[in-house]
Amino acid sequence: NLDWANLDLANFDLEGLFNQTDFATTEWGEIFGAINFETAAFCPLLEQFAGLGQDFGIVGGCTCEGSLNEGLGINCNFEDQCAPAADDGIAACGSIDFGMSLGQTPGTYSTNICVELSDGVYPEVCYTYDLMTAADGSTIAQSCTATYDDNMCGCEIDENSCMLIDCGNYLPGAVMDTCQYLGADATLQFGADAANFLPRFQVLDPNFEVNFEEVDWMSIDWTNLDWQNFDVDSLWNHSDWANTEWSDIFSADVDADSICPLLEHFAGVGAEFGIDGGCACSGDSVGGLGLDCSFQDVCVDGEETLCGSTTLGFDFDGLGAIVGEACVDFSGDEHPITCFKYSVPLADEMTAPTCEATYGGDGCDCAIDENFCVSIDCSDYNGNAVTSTCSQVLTSWNTAADATVLVPRFSLAADDGETSNGGTPPGNDGLQGGDTDALNNGSSASLARKSLVLAMVCIGSIALLL
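Predicted structure:
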């Protein structure tokens, strides 16, 4: 017979209500009767039953809904909440949607929380936990679930209602070092307490680095991987990457299409370049992986225009080296099909990269100098089939216009005499594979190779230098 709508909440003894011995089996209807649960006057009362403080409800703009038969609910939203850096160095800010459903009997709670981190880089993280408590506050049963961009994560909750989330299969580092307490008596009195719901993922630490040996690479969901935040270079942050094979990272049944963004990154291929070139991945982690692109009517502008259709392929047989090949079919048949193939050993700084070229299927001289600049000399077959200067690698391939470097800077003239473009045969200035002095640690070659290995953006570029 209580007038719940006008109850003196400040002095009402809720604890006394909860101390009845059969409270776990008591239904809401036995307490509230036919009260309208969506009225503003009742919501603060329901929040108190759920253990939420008045300030928490005001800051979150909490509203109530539901019915006796279907259960009661509380919904809140908190903008721009921040959890300060703790001892683990993790600090996070974001917006939080908080929803709590109260079952048909008091003491049964289901809480759903979704977080949008304020940097806008990470996808939405949601988690739920269900608790059933006895009249004395002890836990009868509990469970939890979590998602990362709508994909299911691992979630565990211990006997103390402390929850751990592991979304590391979508992003290495999207895991918790320490659990978050979500017990029935967790402090949710003030609006600032909502920040406790921000996931304390390792990856949110500004100093976080992926440790190769600590990642279960076989558990990575490459199809749903968070490519935007995945540190590709972390693949190389371990002691024995020279002997690492793709099969150590990818399972045998991995779909080549699902890891294509990784291969494109290794090759320095941007999204627009990949689309324009119709780039596609193939193979598997056992037999080797490949990336193939093609461009039509690619032209080199100058006093005379030389055009051709090009194909570009990368072979990723292992992580210790990369092999690529590009071929050009000249539109006006000024020269026969010309191809360039290279191999770059990434593991050994003292080993020079090598290259080879063909002109109409016949072998030519090819050189990569200490700065990864490529020269081609096919003058044995055509005096004009010599690149006048070597072509320096690009750091990335972003648009179809970048494909112009696939066309070798040969002359249009088809004289069989001496070289007409003033080119220097690569044997004079180029590195033919045995000159390792230029590759000592302090040299520009060593710096170029280190940039290639660490950034992994110049790898594919070398293959494009025709």
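Summary: The chain is about 10% helix and 30% strand.
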